[in-house]
């Protein structure tokens, strides 16, 4: 009898050990938590990791309203809602890996920095705007919801209403109007700890608990400007230039594109505002590329899902 109990105990322990770590996914702009594309991706992930529990983040269970929330809403409130949502999922209580598509990537990073309970083990972000965007993403030809949001955002991007209600405005970082951005923006300046008087050391402490931060950039990305924002690259701040320098930079930008400073030369890294340097010093940051335009995953996702999701530690 004792040997039978021991056998079942060992069998149960083995079965539990073989269950992949759960995964949380936050979809991108113009998508919803259970769109056909998202359901297909979840299915492909579960073929890679049989038995994996996957939770797709939602702002609203209604698919139309969830898609709309990607354009309109207060991002701080959305991240808070998702933190409460994840805390109520019993399968996630011991932690999980996470994948963020496009803007879902910086939103998941905000979750890690502000809450991280339950904790994230590995975070993979595809084409995310970690250092913001210097232009509003282009819209598909007949996507009128997107076109209205873009037009409204660009007209008064740093106005109070836009900063409270237009999602893309809340990570718009204008290198030619940086001082206004620091004053007006509340979301991106917070998760990047850019305002000295508002720096929150908890952000760095929580982000540095990640085992791996995997940053994926799309090589031909024209939606995220600059595309290097996916790797924490940012355009040169133009404010404070001498008068004669500005026209030259405008001409250079027109022909050669924006001048981008890589992550390891940025103050956010050098002064370790959010824990990036600490992560990097222990080889916790991985830079990857997917060949193609924004969110054209092809098959580049599969190796990353194999390497950075579903593990046991």
Automatic annotation (TrEMBL):
The keyword NADP does not apply. The keyword Glycoprotein applies. Residues 1-17 form the signal peptide. One of its GO terms (molecular function) is palmitoyl-(protein) hydrolase activity. Keywords: Disulfide bond, Glycoprotein, Hydrolase, Signal. Its EC number is 3.1.2.22. SUPFAM superfamilies: alpha/beta-Hydrolases. InterPro entries: AB_hydrolase_fold (IPR029058), Palm_thioest (IPR002472). Pfam families: Palm_thioest. Belongs to the palmitoyl-protein thioesterase family. This is Palmitoyl-protein thioesterase 1. It comes from Gymnopilus junonius (Spectacular rustgill mushroom). The lineage of its organism: Eukaryota, Fungi, Dikarya, Basidiomycota, Agaricomycotina.
């Amino acid at each position: 009898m004792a040997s039978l109990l021991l056998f079942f105990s060992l069998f149960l322990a083995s079965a539990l050990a073989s269950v992949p770590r759960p995964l949380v996914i936050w979809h991108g702009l113009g998508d919803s938590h259970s769109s056909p594309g998202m359901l297909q991706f979840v299915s492909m992930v579960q073929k890679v990791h049989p038995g994996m529990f996957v939770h797709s983040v939602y702002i609203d269970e209604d698919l139309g309203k969830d898609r709309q929330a990607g354009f309109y809403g207060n991002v701080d409130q959305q991240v808070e809602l998702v933190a409460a949502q994840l805390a109520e999922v019993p399968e996630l209580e011991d932690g999980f890996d996470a994948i963020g598509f496009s803007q879902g990537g910086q939103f998941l990073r905000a979750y890690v920095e502000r809450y991280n309970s339950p904790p994230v083990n590995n975070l993979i972000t595809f084409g995310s705007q970690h250092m913001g965007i210097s232009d509003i993403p282009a819209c598909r030809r007949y996507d009128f919801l997107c076109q209205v949001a873009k037009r409204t955002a660009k007209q008064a991007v740093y106005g109070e209403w836009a900063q409270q209600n237009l999602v893309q405005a809340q990570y718009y970082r204008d290198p030619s109007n940086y001082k206004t951005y620091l004053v007006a923006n509340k979301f991106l300046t917070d998760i990047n700890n850019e305002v000295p008087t508002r720096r929150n050391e908890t952000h760095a402490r929580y982000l540095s608990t990640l085992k791996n931060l995997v940053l994926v950039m799309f090589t031909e990305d024209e939606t995220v400007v600059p595309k290097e924002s996916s790797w924490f690259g940012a355009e040169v701040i133009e404010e404070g230039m001498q008068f004669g320098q500005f026209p030259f930079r405008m001409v250079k930008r027109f022909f050669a594109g924006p001048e981008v400073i890589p992550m390891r030369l940025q103050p956010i890294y050098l002064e370790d505002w959010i824990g990036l340097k600490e992560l990097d010093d222990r080889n916790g940051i991985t830079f990857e590329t997917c060949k193609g335009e924004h969110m054209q995953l092809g098959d580049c996702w599969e190796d990353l899902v194999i390497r950075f999701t579903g593990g046991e530690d």
